[in-house]
């Protein structure tokens, strides 16, 4: 029982901490609640108890309470931002309408009053919530595309690198062996790309291993954004990554490699507490599997040797 209470307290505390990130919307909600109470009781009078319809009171009160609960759930789950603002505006608009319905069961307003009908009838909250759902749909589609790439990694039984959660060198070798085993026609449609990202070593030296690990995670996510569904990304060691492009000819593979190189060059890494961003670069080597009829181990060895010789394209650690 004690363990259950501890878990419940921990969950509630965490949820409240997240909700308090949205103080602006909590303030708006309290203003709407207070304003409707003041307007109704200052302009109207309480109905006699004989006129109370408890079914309507309970139903409309519960509706208003549920909308507030939905709002708090959304605020506890989402960070502040554009989509969250639309959700909050929508739920508060719906709450205003439901809460005014609830107050109408208790308070009789003068017949000349019209603002209460506007509050109850205007679908501003529903329109805002519709916009929020549309934006959320677009957001989820982007997340789904990313998760599909991650899903292919986690469904594989190969051990993952603890830092980047990417497959290790063993998975790369297995992928190349599988492609080679399918025959020459399939093998020749594969390209291996090795890249060393910079300035990993300098970040590790200046800011420590934890920041260097964070740098690798950020770079791995950046690279993954460029991958097609069938491509493979592995973290070999340190600052070295490997990609296998499947079903490509040399021109297509070069185009994909160039896109990746451009993306990395344009990226700027930020260390918390450091005002200036860090320029990121990479040296890379791409080898087609049809060159010299390479077996998988020869392909990887040649690529590793070529990359070790290529230092002129590695960016030094400069601040932009």
Itemize the secondary structure elements and their pairings.
Elements: H1 2-19, H2 23-43, E1 45-46, H3 54-77, H4 82-104, E2 107-108, H5 115-121, H6 124-154, H7 169-181, H8 184-187, E3 190-198, H9 200-207, H10 209-226, E4 232-237, E5 240-246, H11 250-266, E6 268-269, E7 278-279, E8 281-288, H12 296-309
Antiparallel strand pairs: 1-2, 3-5, 3-8, 4-5, 6-7
Keywords: Membrane, Transmembrane, Transmembrane helix
Domain GGDEF: 188-320
Transmembrane segments: 25-41, 53-75, 82-103, 115-136
Structural class: alpha+beta
Q: Report, as a whole number of angstroms, the end-to-end distance.
A: 56 Å
Please state roughly what percent of the residues sit in beta strands, choosing from under 5%, 5-15%, 15-25%, 25-35%, 35-45% or over 45%: 5-15%
**What is the CATH superfamily classification of the largest domain?**
Reverse transcriptase/Diguanylate cyclase domain
Shape: elongated
Number of strand segments: 8
Keywords: Membrane, Transmembrane, Transmembrane helix
Protein name: GGDEF domain-containing protein
Pfam families: GGDEF
InterPro entries: Cyclic-di-GMP_PDE-like (IPR050706), GGDEF_dom (IPR000160), Nucleotide_cyclase (IPR029787), Rev_trsase/Diguanyl_cyclase (IPR043128)
């Amino acid at each position: 029982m004690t363990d259950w209470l501890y878990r419940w307290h921990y969950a509630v505390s965490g949820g409240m901490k997240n909700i308090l990130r949205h103080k602006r919307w909590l303030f708006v909600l309290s203003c709407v609640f207070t304003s409707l109470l003041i307007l109704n009781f200052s302009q109207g009078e309480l109905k006699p108890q004989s006129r109370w319809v408890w079914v309507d009171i309970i139903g409309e009160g519960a509706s208003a309470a549920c909308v507030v609960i939905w709002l708090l759930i959304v605020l506890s789950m989402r960070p502040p931002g554009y989509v969250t603002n639309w959700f909050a505006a929508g739920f508060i608009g719906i709450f205003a309408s439901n809460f005014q319905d609830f107050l109408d069961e208790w308070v009789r307003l003068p017949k000349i009053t019209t603002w209460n009908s506007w509050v109850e009838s205007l679908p501003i909250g529903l329109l805002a919530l519709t916009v929020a759902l549309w934006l959320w749909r677009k957001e989820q589609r982007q997340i789904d595309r990313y998760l599909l790439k991650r899903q292919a990694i986690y469904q594989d039984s190969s051990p993952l690198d603890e830092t980047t959660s990417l497959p290790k060198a063993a998975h790369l070798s297995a992928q190349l062996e599988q492609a080679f085993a399918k025959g020459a026609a399939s093998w020749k449609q594969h390209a291996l790309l090795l890249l060393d990202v910079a300035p990993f070593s300098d970040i590790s030296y200046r800011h420590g291993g934890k920041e260097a690990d964070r740098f690798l995670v950020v770079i791995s996510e950046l690279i993954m954004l460029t991958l097609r569904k069938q491509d493979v990304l592995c973290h070999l060691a340190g600052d070295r990554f490997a990609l296998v492009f499947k079903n490509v000819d040399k021109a297509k593979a070069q185009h994909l490699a160039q896109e990746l190189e451009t993306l990395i060059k344009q990226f700027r890494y930020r260390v918390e507490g450091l005002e200036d961003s860090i320029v990121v670069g990479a040296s890379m080597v791409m080898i087609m599997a049809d060159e010299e009829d390479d077996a998988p181990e020869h392909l990887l060895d040649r690529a590793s040797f070529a990359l070790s010789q290529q230092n002129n394209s590695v960016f030094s650690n400069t601040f932009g």
